[in-house]
């Protein structure tokens, strides 16, 4: 599930949204209200239940061969997503939907490399939401390694010190550090 050229996506478990209004989440680090969306490169970060903690890593042009082997392993492809066993049933059963937006309504957000796109005005989707489908299958179809761990923290601590790209989402919902 990726956006078409000129589009961005927003993923939700709610298939009934007809208009997205800017809001500020209680846990947001930014003071401003936004409508959030992602491009094709970051769409896989959201192929999860909303509350699911996940740690993700991928090879970049500056990733060393040693770091690539350490994180992705032989035959591991270009990207790995890690979740905890406690979230596996939710990953199997959550119904997720993708809303398409015109990219022109948004601006890149994040430094030094944008990780999302934001709008500060209400945005109407281009059409009805599309079911993402089986979340395990979309990972497999994209060639993304899905790792299921007892606890995310050792993986997260390792990838954040290496030359791979990485992102952590909803880590506050992960099991406590051992």
Describe the structure.
- It is a single chain.
- With about 180 residues, the chain is α+β, with helices and mostly antiparallel strands.
- It has one domain (about 5-175).
- The chain has helices at about 65-70, 90-95, 135-140, 155-160; strands spanning about 5-10, 35, 55-60, 80-85, 95-100, 105-110, 115-120, 130, 145-150, 165-170.
- β6 and β7 form a beta hairpin.
- It holds the Pfam family DUF6886.
- InterPro entries: DUF6886.
Would you summarize the structure shown here?
It holds the Pfam family DUF6886. With 178 residues, the protein is α+β, with helices and mostly antiparallel strands.
Q: Unreliable segments (pLDDT under 50, ≥5 consecutive)?
A: none
Mean pLDDT: 95
Task: Give the overall form.
Answer: globular
| SSE class | alpha+beta
Instruction: Give the strand content.
Output: 25-35%
Q: Give the strand tally.
A: 10
H/E series, N to C?
EEEHEHEEEEHEHE
Helix content: 10-25%
* Number of separate structural domains: 1
Largest sheet: 4 strands, mixed
Produce the secondary structure layout.
Blueprint: E1 7-12, E2 35-37, E3 54-58, H1 65-72, E4 79-84, H2 88-93, E5 97-102, E6 107-109, E7 116-119, E8 130-131, H3 135-141, E9 145-149, H4 153-159, E10 165-169
Parallel strand pairs: 4-9
Antiparallel strand pairs: 1-5, 2-7, 3-4, 3-10, 5-8, 6-7
